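Teaching note: in complex prediction, the entire set of molecules is handled at once rather than each chain in isolation. The prompt given to students was simply: 'Predict the structure of this complex.' The entities are:
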Amino acid sequence: MSLVYDVNTKQIQLPEASDDMAMNIAQINKLTQDLIAESNPNFTPKPRDDSTAMIKKLFENGLKQTKQQHFPEALKSISLAIEMAQRKRTPWEAFAIQLQELQFMVKNRIDLCLIQGKFMDALQDIELLQNTGVNTSDVFIRKTDALIKLKQYELAKVECERGLSLDPTNVKLKALLLENTRKLAEYNGDI
Amino acid sequence: MPLSYDYDESSETWPFFLLTLLCVVLIPLTIAQLYALLKSENSEKATRQKSPLDELDERYTSAKMIDFQKKFSNKRSKLTSKRTIFVVVGWAIVALLVNKIGGNEAIKEAASSLFDPYELLGIATSATEKEVKSAYRKLSVKFHPDKLSKDLTEQQRLDMEEQYVLITKAYKALTDELTRENFLRYGHPDGPQATSHGIALPKFLVNSSGSPLVIISYIAMLGFILPFFVSRWWSRTQSFTKKGIHVKSASYFADRLFNFKPSQVVTVDMIIKWLSHAEEFKIFYPNLTPSVFESLLHDHLNRSSSSDLEDVKLRIVAKTHSLLFGLLDIATSFRNLEITNVTLDTFKSIVQATPSGPYSQILQLPNVNQKAFLEGAVDDIRTLGKLFTFDDKKIGKILGIDDEGKLKDTLTVASQIPHLKIVRAEFKVPGEPVVTPSSTPHIVLKVMVRSARHKFFTPNKIPDEMCSEPQDFDSLRDPFASTLEQPVIPETFAPYFPVKRTGSWCCIVVLQKDGKVIQTPMITNRLSFVNLSKDFDKRKVKDVDSEFDPKEWEVGTIKIPFSQPAPPQKGDYFFRVIVKNTDYFGADLDITMPMSVRDPPHIETLENEYGDINSEDEEDTEFEEDSNDELDDDDSDYTDIDTDTDVDEEDEKQ
Amino acid sequence: MSFNGTNFNETFGGETESTVEMKSVSFYTPLIYVSVLVISLITFASHYRKKTIKELTELPSIFDESDARDLYFQLKQMKELDNVKVHDKVIKAALLNRGAEAIRRSLKLKESEPQITLLYKNGSVGEDYWKRYQNEVKLVDLEFKETLQEAEMMQPGWAQLFVAVCKEICFNQALKRRYQAELARKEIFTEQWHLKFDDNGKLIE
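The expected output is the structure of the full assembly:
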């Protein structure tokens, strides 16, 4: 292993590293960067207010543009806000805060993607929400919708049924189930 | 007096010893061999259903494959196996020994010195006491020393005297209490005879030249041969898991599953990569590396030839069957649904030698011109059901098949692939009408096996009577016995798979709350395929209601045992049941079903009874009823929250 | 008992023989035998114990890699032995990364425990895997303790805060990994489902 250390940037590098090794190196580099910017040796998980302010500003910009029906620009603003959060936040700032922040912004991004027909992007964001523990019905509604639009009717059925099992009285899910069943019947040549 | 040990100088005892030893081994072995010989053609093959695909499979199997099957199948003829030879040789030795015993004078002498009172008195063994007495009187008259004639020699006189004594003894042995006891206990009226202890070894082994040989053979047996066989057996048992895969393969799969990152997407390629590291492959071919195995498996999926590694490829493909089941077992134990699903997809891919993708249902059919199909398609046809909405000629065009005969074959295969349609699904507790808290339910699925060619009909067209279960005592005791009455499914149409096989359905149960698998899969291969030959063609049937007669259709049953008891709280719990076929694309079933846990009904009737008691107790009874109602209401209001905490706690514990 | 030296009754005569042979055996024979036996058993036992310990240490880890730990030691070595001017904060970063990884591993082992126990009890997995798992639990525990010690050495009194901070880092790193995997997932699904997208991410029919 021939680890390369750059004295000026204080970053480490390893040519031809495996995926896991590259991941660890990137993580160390990010920590180094943030540690250098942090003057307090006894730093705590308390989230930094200046980062919060910056991210919030970008996000609210996006919300404003959404209200004005400027969807592509809104999407750009919100994506920017998310990127800013990923870049500015240090790994040691409270996880609960960072998670909530990300989930909230991603929820908005999903709706914007769906409106603009970017179904695969929306689907990935939805799966991110699900993997991080968001199991509310509106997530299932959006996922079923995205999957139907992507013509994955069997997967859509699975998601819809799961959504209904967690919220049996949801009207929208029931409607989606009916629509999906019809599309599935056509897919299977049963009409 | 010290007992002396005699060696078997006159070959009296060792033949018996050897004979006993041989018989103990030979008799059960012979019975087992005969039984196996006669039984080899029966049982499963008798109950397996015939299918039009059997003949097609024969035809489409390539010559190379048939050669391979001949080379590697278990062709040990029962008649020439080692066991049979051993049995035959053993019996030959037995015959020799019997002969030897028969010809051995010393044994005969020893046998003849047995005391037989009946013989001495000259009467049958079933003689009465009267007959015994009369026989004795007659003979004693003849042999009494005082009654003997004078002109006998000294020797003859002595012989007569001996005879007389014997006769007296014989009489006494049959009548006198004490003597009879002696006779019964020791075989001789005079009491215990001389007993000699001997070692049943022939003379030549005990001689000074032979004895070191005996000692060495004992040492070899106890010190080397026995430990060798025991340790070999032990290490063999230790190296395979209960599922039949090598322990190292199982460890490898467990490693992959443990280190699996949730952000990764599972693909068939990934599973194939894992399979290529199996220890079984390494044992078969120690010189080849996993990447070679991986490329061979990919070759198999793409139906491309592997030149000189063709036999290797076929052998490892045949082995994937047990490896995939082992992986399935480990994946479900790790509760990973994505890997479980993709493993089953990989299974199908390997059996049909078709890569997994949106068009696999069509591409698994024989004679399909892949290029023509993928490029020429006007409608996006991905399922067999959709394919059958077109008439036969059009199908030929879509699939790029020009030849009439080939088209017919393809259509036969396509219409014989079993599709499952759910008719009824419920959780059942034997003996109870509802699922009660903390009971042991199992899942009962009523399915309709239908062809892609058949017109769709809704499950409510099947009346309840056709879906009912027998309620007799036997079915309560063992609810799963009734599923075994269904016939074994026919052989799979898989001309590219090296071994003839019957597929199966794997039933996986998932908890909808957390989306994870809750138990290891239940494998079943018993369903009737009678429906597949019915002609309910969707292109011909115009009106389902009038033309559909449910009585002509067979309803199949799948019963899945449930590994956990029902939750102790009342409420509705949702489970997803996935029934995936291992051999065909499109033959799967995926449903969500609720488990409604309710109070047992007789509690409700008790409440009614209480309500009927006279008005004096009305206050009390009202109070009781009210409080019961309140509890019920409480439960139903807070059921969701209760269930959440229950399952959450389980999650936290895990 | 018999009065003529015989123990049994006979009808017609009989012969008795009694020849007792005496064999002379040296006094030392049993001692030699016992000592040979005991010595061979002792040597076998010690040999076997050594072999099992060697096997245990050579067992591969349950985890695929130990990169976080390796990187920390490499950087430390670079700083102390190879005289590369590695900044202190880089070492600190590597230590934090190592701590976060140790926490991730112990959580992962804990959450897999019922599943691996089930596998072992069902016989789906061999003795070797179970041994490796039990080994790993101990090793991960040890690793975390070592990391704490290093933290304490680096900055006295930091240990408690170090643990809290490492926990946050562990979870945040996991979230970031999951977020960054989105692009790769998009590509895989697009290929699997035979979809085509234009530059804007809109579906092309």
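Point out the following to students. Chain C has a mean pLDDT of 88. The first strand of chain C starts at residue 196 and ends at 197.
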